[in-house]
Specification:
This protein is an all-alpha fold. The protein is built from two helices and no strands. The chain is 40% helix and 0% strand. GO terms for molecular function: DNA-binding transcription factor activity, RNA polymerase II-specific; nuclear glucocorticoid receptor binding; RNA polymerase II cis-regulatory region sequence-specific DNA binding; zinc ion binding.
Length: 42
Amino acid sequence: CEGCKGFFKRSIRGHVSYVCRSEQNCLVNKAYRNRCQYCSYQ
């Protein structure tokens, strides 16, 4: 989707590092994709 495309583009261009507040195994799907940026980027 366009939102995901923008997220990955910003992550790569900005050399951003994200931190997971959980155990680095968050559920990433359409409903929960904005909850954890770290797990989305992995």
